[in-house]
Amino acid sequence: MPPKKSAPAFVPTDAPAKNGGSAYVPDLGPVNRQAPVTRVDAQPPFLLKAHPERWTVMGSSIVPMFGRMVLQAGVGGVSARAGGKIDASDARNMTEERGWTLIPVDAVPDSHATTNADGQVVKSYLYRPDGREDVTLLRYTRCFPGSSAIEVDEAGFVEFCDYLQAEGYIKPPAAYALEKLRARMERESGELSDRAREHSQFAESAKRAKEQLGVVERALLAARETPSTGSAVVVDA
Amino acid sequence: MANEIIFSGIGDLTLAENLSNTYILLAAERSALQNHPALLYVGDIGAGARSNTLKVPHVGLMGYDLLASTGDGSAVANTALTDGSSTVAVARYSKSYEASDLARMTSGGLIDPSAMAMDAILSGALTLTSLVANLCDNFSTTVGTSGVDATVANFLDAITANEIAHTEGPLMAMLHPVQWGDIRKDLGINAGGALQFAPASAELIAFRGTGFQGSLAGVDVFTNTFVPTMNAGADRGGAMFGKGAILWADGSIPVEADPNQVVIAGKVLFERVRAGKSGLTAYVSHRYLGVVEGIDGFGVTIATDA
After folding, report:
1. Helix (H, G, I), strand (E, B) or coil at B120
2. Which end of chain B has fewer CB atoms within 10 angstroms, the N or the C?
3. CB contact at 8 A, B270 and B264
């Protein structure tokens, strides 16, 4: 049986001959090109805040699970002032009254300094991606032109957190906070292990949770400290 | 052959593009939350209030302190009244679309007062949603593991934490769609229908917006992409909270007897501003809003993989 013939391909009339010819560049019409910018969601500027009971594990380190004091009028007690400025004094007071520690925006290691829009070297843990004035990110959060994807500079973030503790901006986690974290992670690790036994898609999460639990357990051993002091109570029965 | 009539030769008879009579809305959040009882409306700063700030007292009454065991004939000591406060600062949120007469003539009715007014209503409601979402990562109680997908167990832990804190229901969960997707998958794979999930009906979606997902274990679940990232972007910080965790306030804008100003949807001032010399018409909307965390214990941050 003769082989099946495929349909002849379209051949433009000006196609070069088999031997020789000239390069052909298709005309795609006028193109309005703009440099792509990141497509991450808008995020207002903020100050990081640390709470003595909020910790998490990143890599093999225990790091603060920071909250944010959003620097936008109308959020968290921040007021608008003339000239586009804000007054965050009420927001600061409420934040600190509730046990949070605000992290100054320039509290970064010297080696983490970056340049601002004018090209000056500035110490700040915040940055704005090019072309997105409405986005403020931690300098340890990477974003990409034309994409909404983000990645974490894990090593840089851990170094930043270590710096905050070394310089006294925040205290290391207390044993009771680590114990609370350990109890929560132990339960979650157990639940994920149960799931992984039935569904392999949970295996990676279970492995990660177990590794993180190990990090907390080691830190807890190292951080055991004397509990709160008190005075004896004599009961008159 | 010659003089064939082909498309590229009749440029004077055709258009480069015809505009379809239909249009596709760009992706945006369209979930209005303000009527949910978990969000506590603390008032309108009101005309003549002399401040843009409302101070909301927290007070330890109605069972906060128990009676002390006291001996017969003994004088009972005074109990210290526990109090505190949250301050809601109301601020302006505005936007303006300005179009030329020619643009309005040729836009097929898209740039007209009714479409702009509808947009102003939705945008006003969603601005509140985005402000609330900005508080979700700030509760001192957290559940979830960094870098690990959210599970039904995380969701149940958040309910428990709220119950321990005596949070008043009904509870609302505000989650990033990724978090909810992970919980829903876990619900399907692992919970095996043992947990009550009532998906949102069409009527409730119409009422509460497209982000309303339904009710899981009695908690109303809303998703939106305003939910912020946490841990340098490794996670999302959703939340589950009840009445008193998040307070919001607004302001009624005084209007003049001007046919170009109208207050719509209660608190959104919608204006038409005509620049006749330039042939431009602007549709401007304003809303005055403020949100703040109330009682920290009445909410739980759900920090799970982004």
Report:
1. helix
2. N
3. yes
Which residue of A38, A61, A65, A139 is the best one to mutate when testing the B interface, meaning the one whose CB has the most B CBs within 10 A?
A: A65
Surface of A (40-59) touching B: CB under 8 A: 41, 43-44, 49, 51, 53-54, 56-58
Q: Chain A neighbours among B 109-128 (CB < 8 Å)?
A: none
Domain count, chain A: 2
Do the interacting molecules here have an ipTM over 0.95?
A: no
For residue B238, how far is the Cα from the chain centroid?
12
What residues of B are in contact with residue A58 (Cβ under 8 Å)?
A: 146-147, 231-232, 234
In a domain, A30, yes or no: no
pLDDT in tens, A67-100: 999 999 999 999 998 888 999 999 999 999 999 9
Residues 6+ apart with CB under 8 A from B138: A49, A67, A68, A76, B237, B293, B301
Domain hosting A219: range is 175-223
Task: Give residue-wise pLDDT tens across range B177-228.
Answer: 999 999 998 888 776 656 777 887 777 776 666 788 999 999 999 998 999 9
Phi, psi of B287 (to 5 degrees): -145, 145
Q: So where are chain B's domains?
A: 140-248+293-305
- Percentage above 70 pLDDT, chain A: 90
Please report whether residue A229 resides in a domain: no
Q: Are both A112 and A188 inside the same structural domain?
A: no
Confirm whether A183 is domain-assigned: yes
Residues A131 and A186 in one domain: no
Contact B148 A209 (CB under 8 A): yes
Q: What mean pLDDT comes out for the span A31-35?
A: 76
